[in-house]
Amino acid sequence: SPNNESEYIVDQELANAINILSSTDSWVNDVIVNDYFLQLERRRPEFVFCSSFLYSKYLKEGAQSIESWIPSNISTIRRMYVPIHLTDHWVLVSMDNDLK
């Protein structure tokens, strides 16, 4: 089916990126993070996995610039994950509404 085929392509792209990272001195980049989040989103549709560009867009352009990137029903979302790139490091911010 087309869905399985597209999942296979994403899985292969991510596997190739991980192989490159493990065999070189390469760094994790936004492509790898976003591809991985795409896979997680397919497997866990009840969670929200944000783009790695969300935080930098928020800092540069303000909260209104990312309103369309965040679901309007945020209070009903079980979990939301936001990757943040800080120069040489990645940080993962998580919101867990199950812990209310």
TrEMBL record:
- Example GO molecular function: cysteine-type peptidase activity
Gene3D superfamilies in the record: Adenoviral Proteinase, Chain A
Signal is among the record's keywords: no
Alphabetically, which GO biological process terms does the record hold? proteolysis
> What are the Ubiquitin-like protease family profile domain coordinates in residue numbering?
1-100
Q: Could you list this entry's UniProt keywords, alphabetically sorted.
A: Hydrolase, Protease
PROSITE patterns per the UniProt record, alphabetical: ULP_PROTEASE
Identify the InterPro entries for this entry: Papain-like_cys_pep_sf (IPR038765), Peptidase_C48_C (IPR003653)
Protein family: Belongs to the peptidase C48 family.
State the name under which the record lists this protein: Ubiquitin-like protease family profile domain-containing protein
